[in-house]
Write a structure and sequence with these properties.
The structure holds two protein chains of two kinds. Chain A is of the alpha+beta class. In chain A, 29% of the residues lie in helices and 26% in strands. Chain B contains 14 helices and 16 strands. The chains are: A alpha+beta, B alpha/beta.
């Protein structure tokens, strides 16, 4: 997953709860990684050569279903297909046969689960913790993907401050979570001194997103939060208006030396 | 620059050297520097130097000798007449000139010679000068082979003569100050030095009609040079040994003629790892087709980094208290507050970009100072302590690196070296 994952449990639950959550994350990584041989790389190998891939890994299959299910919610703007420069095809050309557990595409294609994998892994880890009786926990993948179980250990909401990427010491916004997940995406990195780290392309027309933007999404599902925050970043104005809701799905325009503007 | 302003600059420079080397620890680590900085003006006449080799480097040395208070160039020697002609302007009118170094030695009237000839000639020129009863200052690297380096040391010992090798960084106030701060523990334990000398040029000189390529471009041919290793790396390997306070136990490396495929025989692209006791390493690279990172030694300790060529010292930035660990602590003491998370993307290992602090003392005349030190050594007949050992080990390290690259296998530090 290439990031630091932290699991913080506060009281309650089986002694092995954390180990089970850790294992859940490792299984997701094993299934979805494209940086070493995995179920995902085997699938990509078939898709690259125009073959139908049988999906035997239940985690990979479940991830594909979640992505497919989210197409309408994300207005088709979350697209895990690699190299969106080839805008003539993408996830919309994928044929996912849920009954036969196969995936195929009319054109050579490969999938990269990227940030989705972090949110999805936290979802499965949170489920493992809940199943083990944990009622209060905080899960983080690189601090850009957060999931919380229950209320804050001292009661009430979990409050998070999300930094302004132009000035890490200045909060962009504070958000409150209970039994929810949070995803933060941006076109600029950890500070304005690390530009273009988050270079992103808009699916469909392969437009590079050069505007400095940060998207913050809260959802019950970490995986969906990841897909929505990516969709917001790459959305054009019309799509962004449809996707954001001001409180749970936020998009910020962050021009240097200009006031922060929340997209409306 | 007027004589007066030069004297002021010189005094400032010497004060900086003395300040950097003050204290028992530094006196032990750099015993040569204070002696050189305390050189007396010539009372009983200046030390008379004959310069063998008046090419670009030889002429640079002649100009530095002219600045010293205790040395003078008393003879010039080069077997290529145009070099002699170019050197003439920097010495007193009537200074004897020779095309054969033996003739210069036979003519007498010298206290010592300065050797700035191609590398493969260093050893023979040193032997001849010492056999003629003269002290020797020789450009680095010492010799073309490790065996010849040892023979030069032995010959100096047998003849009771001073042998000093041109490693001017040991007289550089910024380097001395850097070492002082290392000895004071400011950057913690040094575990790695990354040194590089990167250029973007062919390193090939135009051959005049009256000469030939192997003579003018001797640095590009195996017979006369080990290329980047002896002409550049040896300086930085000396710095590595000096700051790591030891010699390598082993070296591995890879060399190639990677870019300038013009008939040269020496590598234009080298990468080596020198291992030192305790797992410490000096990682060295040199290449001739990219100058982005230039010449630098990055001396890295647990508390900071010193970069002498850049003249800066950097403190390590304390690790940021991870927000979620702080949240854990807050909960334990019953304190609930907003948790500042990392943001959109978490970059755990970005380079530290703090500006660091200047080591200062960037103006230097260290080449002049090493000659003043040499003048003192010649007068007293006693070498400046510590210098030859540093130079010998630096040359051995550079030539051992060449062997490691040529053979494609790790080379251990020789056990048969001459003891100094």
């Amino acid at each position: 997953m290439g990031t630091r994952v932290e699991l913080h449990r506060f009281g309650g639950g089986a002694p092995e709860a954390l180990a089970m959550a850790q294992r859940a994350i490792e299984l997701v990584d094993d299934a979805l990684t494209i940086h070493r041989p995995s179920s995902a790389t085997a699938m990509n190998e078939a898709l690259r050569h125009g073959r139908t891939a049988a999906i035997e890994d239940p985690i990979l299959f479940d991830a594909l279903i979640q992505i497919d299910d989210a197409r309408d919610v994300t207005a088709g703007l979350f697209d895990p297909s690699v190299d969106a420069r080839h805008a003539s095809f993408g996830w919309r050309d994928i044929r996912l046969d849920r009954r036969a557990a196969t995936i195929a595409c009319a054109a050579p294609i490969a999938l990269d689960f990227g940030g989705f994998g972090k949110g999805y892994a936290l979802d499965r880890a949170a489920t493992a913790l809940r199943d083990a009786g944990v009622g209060c926990a905080l899960l983080s993948a690189g601090e850009s993907s957060i999931a919380v179980i229950g209320e804050h250990p001292l009661g009430g909401e979990w409050s998070f401050a999300i930094p302004d990427p132009r000035d890490a010491g200045r909060p962009l916004i504070e958000v409150a979570l209970v039994d929810e997940a949070l995803s933060v995406s941006a076109t600029i990195g950890a500070g304005i001194a690390a530009p273009e780290r988050g270079a992103m392309l808009r699916p469909g027309d392969a437009t590079p997103i050069v505007a400095p933007r940060t998207a913050v999404v809260i959802d019950r599902s970490g995986a969906l939060a990841e897909m929505l925050s990516t969709a917001l970043i790459v959305a054009d104005d019309a799509a962004a208006r449809r996707l954001h809701d001001g409180a749970r799905r936020m998009l910020f325009e962050l021009e240097p030396d200009a006031p922060t503007r929340m997209f409306v | 620059m007027t004589e007066k302003t030069f004297d002021v600059t010189r005094r400032t420079f010497l004060d900086r050297v003395l300040m950097a080397t003050a204290g028992s620890v530094m006196a032990g680590a750099t015993p040569w520097a204070a002696i050189a900085a305390g050189a007396e003006t010539a009372g009983a006449g200046k030390v008379r130097l004959g310069v063998i080799g008046t090419g670009d480097r030889g002429r640079a040395l002649i100009q530095n000798i002219a600045k010293t208070r205790n040395c003078m160039v008393a003879a010039l020697c080069d077997n290529y007449a145009p070099n002699l002609g170019k050197a003439r302007q920097w010495v007193a009118a009537g200074t004897p000139e020779f095309s054969d170094h033996r003739a210069m030695l036979d003519a007498r009237g010298l206290d010592a010679v300065v050797i700035a000839t191609p590398l493969h000639r260093h050893a023979q020129h040193t032997f001849d000068a010492m056999d003629a009863g003269l002290h020797v200052w020789c450009e680095k690297a010492m010799a073309r082979t490790i065996a010849d380096c040892g023979r030069m040391v032995e010959r100096a010992r047998a003849r009771g003569k001073v042998l000093q090798i041109g490693h001017q960084r040991m007289f550089h106030p910024t380097y001395l100050n850097a070492l002082r701060r290392v000895k004071a523990g400011e950057i913690g334990s040094i575990t790695q030095i990354r040194a590089s000398w990167h250029r973007n040029n062919a390193w090939r000189r135009k051959v005049p009609a009256d000469s030939d390529d192997r003579r003018i471009n001797w640095r590009l041919y195996r017979e006369s040079s080990a290329g980047l290793m002896t002409e550049l790396a040896t300086h930085q390997l000396q710095v590595g040994n000096w700051f790591l306070d030891g010699v390598p136990t082993r070296v591995i490396g890879s060399g190639s003629i990677c870019f300038w495929k013009d008939g040269r025989e020496v590598y234009d692209h080298v990468a080596l790892i020198y291992e030192y006791a305790g797992g410490r390493k000096l990682i060295y690279t040199s290449l001739l087709n990219n100058a982005r990172y230039g010449c630098e030694e990055q001396i890295q300790g647990s508390k900071g980094t010193i970069e002498p060529e850049l003249g800066r010292i950097y403190q390590e930035v304390p690790a940021r208290a991870l927000a979620l660990q702080r949240m854990q602590a807050d909960v334990k003491r019953g304190h609930k507050r907003t948790i500042p998370i990392g943001g959109a993307t978490w970059f755990p290992e970005l380079p530290v970009t703090t500006p660091g602090e200047s080591l200062g003392w960037g103006e230097y005349d260290e080449t002049m100072l090493q000659f003043e030190g040499f003048g003192e050594a010649v007068r007293s007949g006693k070498p400046l302590p510590g210098l030859l050992q540093q130079a010998y080990y630096a040359s051995v390290a550079s030539l051992l690196g060449e062997q490691a690259m040529d053979r494609g296998e790790a080379m251990t530090w020789p056990t048969s070296l001459v003891t100094i």
